[in-house]
Amino acid sequence: MRWTMSRAKVMVVEDESIVAIDISQRLQSLGYEVTATVSSGEKAVEMAEKTRPDIILMDIVLKGEMGGIEAAEEINKRMKVPIVYITAYSDEETLRRAKVTGPFGYIIKPFEDRELHSVIEVALYKHELERRLAENDELFRAILSSVQDILFTADSEGLLTMVSPGPLAGYGLEADDVLGKGLVEVFGDEVHHEMIGRALKGEPVTYEWTWAPHDKFYFETTLSPLRDFEGNITGVVGIHRDVTEKETARRALERETLINRELADLSKQLLASMSLEEISDSITRKAEALTESRYCLAGFIESGTLKNYTLTENVRRECHLDTDSLKLGGLIEWIMREKEAILLNDPSSDPRYSGVPEDHVEISNLIAVPAVLRDELVGILMVSGKEGGYDEGDLELLQRLADIYALAIYRKMEEDRLKASEERNRALVEKFLKIVTEVLEEIR
Asked: What sections of the protein cross the membrane (predicted)?
């Protein structure tokens, strides 16, 4: 405790001087320190701030403009000090007015020393308990505001009765706006209904779910039964933990693993003997699938011209392209000239883009990358039509596919050159042998 009976400081507010002296003497005989004895409400407010008593004995009826009740209201605005009313009046109206100020007790004139002692000790004890509760409440609120997880309680109907306000702001919510609402109404996902039902039956549960108020978030929630003092389940207490960063990293790792496996399989496949058209077909199907695109095309250079295009099924069915005069708004010509990749989620805003051929579906987004080997352009790879648009990860993936495409094209062309060279040499040897044979025949 902050006080003991022998050290507690008391201020007396009483406009009858004889009564005030009597009360002061009684208090001193009981071991209390009397900090001041005043006779008006105005003086009571002044001396309360000046002497800082532990408790105030306040006569309800005081002479002057400010009565005891008004003085108590003003003191309560300025400081936290318990006030006990002293009154000779016990009528309902007076007590009703006095109750509004939250007094810590009443003592009716005339009173005995033991009554005075008891009411003071009870008031001091009650005030100390309220102070501790207020401190604990402030600490609890500070904790709720500082934690990153969303702490909450819900009743047996699944309606929120408490929620930590701090984390909610990051998701565009206010605690006052969600109290009284159901978890499903606030956070979506019907899984909350099932899990609350299990927790209300006494089963602690942990589950994962997603929420997309504007961006997509991943959560892990733990629910436990909330019990009253008699052990009855009255609701649930829970924690929503944002695991978006961890889940995003896990999914990225899974995707990277999948991509590496797919690219390894593709590279192995391209080692087999196949035509340039078959190489392009394998690349386009893989690019369309891995980037979740609706359309894909690839082209390789032959005799110095980029015109040998391979189209995926959706392109052939929906785009009505004339591959002999394919321009796509000048983007392909720009890529061939600059040997740089393009990522456009709004092509119409880019000055390099001037539209699509007649009867072609509108392009909402695209990535196009050159297939370059040893600074030589050997092909081009393009995807479009991904729902939600492309990101840098998609661009990086398509560049890796373009690198594989460039190697496969170069390898195939070298094989074809070598084969052509071998055939020429064989033809020369056969011609030479024929000439030698004819010469020998003539000599004979």
From this structure: none
d(CA 48, CA 73): 12
Question: Which residue segment(s) compose the domain that 185 sits in?
Answer: 147-242
Residue 83's H or E segment, with its range, is strand 83-87
Q: Where are the beta strands (DSSP E) in 127-286?
A: 150-155, 160-163, 205-211, 217-227, 233-242
Query: pLDDT tens digits, residue range 132-182?
Result: 887 776 766 666 566 678 888 899 888 999 888 777 777 888 878 888 988
What amino acid occupies position 170?
A: G
SS3 label, residue 248? helix
Please indicate, yes or no, whether residues 285 and 419 belong to a single structural domain of this protein: yes
Query: Residue 9 in 3-state DSSP?
Result: strand
Is the whole model's pTM more than 0.85, yes or no? no
Q: Which residue has the higher pLDDT, 140 or 413?
A: 413
Confidence band of 326 (pLDDT split at 50, 70, 90): low
Contact assessment for residue 310 and residue 298, using Cβ atoms and an 8 Å cutoff: yes
Task: Give dist(CA 184, CA 190) in Å, integer.
Answer: 6
Cα–Cα distance for residue pair 379/330, rounded to 1 Å: 16
| Half-sphere exposure in the Cβ direction for 255 (13 Å, CA) | 13
The residue to which tokens 């989620």 are assigned: 345
157 and 64 in a common domain: no
Q: What is the CATH number of the domain that holds 16?
A: 3.40.50.2300
| CB 3 within 8 Å of CB 32 | no
- Shared domain for 391 and 309, answered yes or no, is yes
Per DSSP, the residues of 252-289 read: HHHHHHHHHHHHHHHHHHHTS---HHHHHHHHHHHHHH
Task: Judge whether 222 lies within some domain.
Answer: yes
Are 235 and 102 within one domain? no
Separation between Cα atoms, residue 428 and residue 22, nearest integer Å: 138
Q: How confident is the model at residue 401 (pLDDT cuts 50, 70, 90)?
A: very high
Helix and strand tally (H, E) in the chain?
Answer: 14, 15
pLDDT for residue 4 is more than 50: no
Task: Residue 15: count other Cβ atoms within 10 Å of its Cβ.
Answer: 17
